[in-house]
Amino acid sequence: MCGIVGAVQKNTKAMPVLLSGLRALEYRGYDSAGVAVIENGKIECVKSVGKVAELEKKLKKRELNGAVGIAHTRWATHGVPSEANAHPHLSHNNEVAVVHNGIIENHEKLRTRLESEGYKFVSDTDTEVIAHLVHHYLNLSKQKDLFEAVEKAVHELKGAYAIAVISGSAPDRIVAARFGSPLVVGFGNEKMFVASDVSALIDETNQFTYLEDGDVAEIFADSCVIRNASGKRVDRPMITSEISAADMSLHGFQHYMQKEMYDQPQAIKSTIEQAMKKGEIDVRAFGAKALSVFRKISSIQIIACGTSYHAGLAARYWIEPLADLPCNVDVASEYRYREPRFRKGTLYVFISQSGETADTLACLNMVKRESPNSHTLAICNVPESSLTRGTDLAFLTRAGKEIGVASTKAFTTQLVAFLLLTVVLGRIRRTLPKEIDKKIMKGLLTLPEKVEEALELDSTLHRLAPKFTEKEHCLFLGRGIEYPIALEGALKLKEISYIHAEGYQAGELKHGPLALVDENMPVIAVAPNDALAGKLQSNLKEVRARNGKLFIFASPETKIVKDEGTEVILIPEVDELLAPIVAVVPLQLFAYHVAVQRGKDVDKPRNLAKSVTVE
Ligand code: F6R
């Protein structure tokens, strides 16, 4: 959600680093982009509407040579995508330039005040107030101290921000600050960087320091000084990132989403392997204190957004019966405002691919504030994310970098993490029947192969897709644990192909959605062979009786028969406990092919961005 990159170098052009950083960060937002560098003590800025490629075209005509610069790729919150609203935002006389990720909640009040002081606003954004505020304090400071000016400016901001600021009056540095939105400082050789995430800088360095909420950093080409919210100088730990350039490559695939679907067998294998020790699940994969925490808990509350929420919904079908624990699942944006009651003994589980989702983090902070003795667990794909750094316990999924906006491998590895958690809890609590334990462990061993088999349906789904390219609506049905999979299938289809798709519990059909069913409304059913398959089949008959066209993703064992209105896509046979992890793969492939055949940009769907760091 908006990407920031900045470089402080000596005598070399910052632009190549800024542009390659922007390209890597484009997944965070892509409706406009811009750069600003300091040249001969003055700020020069170029912006453009659209993707980073548009900005690059402009920069071919107007070369910027400065060694210090900041850049931004935007996901619009305040104001339409336009050049005026694109970042960097400039203050009076171009003295200060700012890029920002987050939302300034008190921007209207600040704007009114600054306007009354004579500042002229040229954009509709909340960010522009930061440029004018920094300018205001810079001109109050006798030494024109940029660090001090930024410190004073951020004290006035309410909301979330990660910012990088440059000024012609301090041409050898960037001042950066964060609260609620991620920001990382990168250490190079006589070059220093700042970015929203490490992927922007992997060609430059693997040494990083994450800023904490309230930090302000002054970054020079060879040093960096960080002060915390109370103005005290602090040292933040240096980490070596494991992300490599290979993680960012398409490896011959057409799209990141396609590559990431094909990464799933390996991602699942790695996630399982890193949780095992001597052939058994190691409870410490959930954190050093996991065993003592898991022994104490009496209920589970799962909190997440989007696809991660669907993983949580599926987990409930495992955790409640097999670990014998009451388990609630909430969407983070609702949970944070519904005044929930906090119960002693609850384990709060936060799931997030990125670990930077604003609503999920807000819920974590709320739980820590309102119920300080509660236990918190993160299931996350990014080791140094705000989420994993904020919880007592953390399980890391090993999906590898996920770049496509539509989450695929992160989802299947989240499901694996939950299945492992169920087994661990069930064993500790002695609620997991031995034969089920064995079945799951055996199933986990062959799961990567089963997912591989599911990927072999690629050409079948490529052939099926044209039946949907002209459709505007579609229903997805599932029962039991396949219901969250139906929701996920619908989400994948709608977000990348823009076909309106809804997921329903099959049993709910006759309570409303059946009214929508006619020959123009395709109905997709997820029907691996589980205990509820029989019941699902009766629901499907209700669809056929209304001339609805059925597309059933079923295992051979269900013996569902094709007829002229029923198409059956055979998915690999797998134990019903593991079935959702396999069943979702053909739905991902299906959404992908429909979107590609409708000519959509599957990796960067309109209006969306990966890593939703604003509320
Ligand atoms: C959909 C998708 C989103 C994310 C959601 C939460 O394909 O990716 O729905 O799942 O924005 O993001 P994380 O998991 O990073 O918290």
Task: Provide structural commentary.
Helix 7 runs parallel beside helix 13 and helix 16 packs parallel to helix 18 (about 580-595). The protein is globular, with a radius of gyration of 25 Å. The model has no long low-confidence stretch (mean pLDDT about 95). Strands 3-2-4-1-10-9-11-15 form an 8-stranded antiparallel sheet, with helices on one face. It is built from 18 helices and 27 strands. The longest helix has 22 residues, at about 435-455. It has about 625 residues and is an alpha/beta fold. The protein folds into 3 domains: about 5-245, Aminohydrolase, N-terminal nucleophile (Ntn) domain (Glutamine Phosphoribosylpyrophosphate, subunit 1, domain 1, 4-Layer Sandwich), CATH 3.60.20.10; about 250-455, Rossmann fold, CATH 3.40.50; about 460-595, Rossmann fold (3-Layer(aba) Sandwich). Fructose -6-phosphate binds near residues 360 and 407.
In CATH, what is the homologous superfamily of the largest domain?
Aminohydrolase, N-terminal nucleophile (Ntn) domain
Which stretches are low in confidence, meaning pLDDT under 50 for 5 or more residues running?
A: none
Identify the CATH architecture of the largest domain. 4-Layer Sandwich
Strand order of the largest sheet: 3-2-4-1-10-9-11-15
Q: What is the count of β-strands?
A: 27
CATH class of the largest domain: Alpha Beta
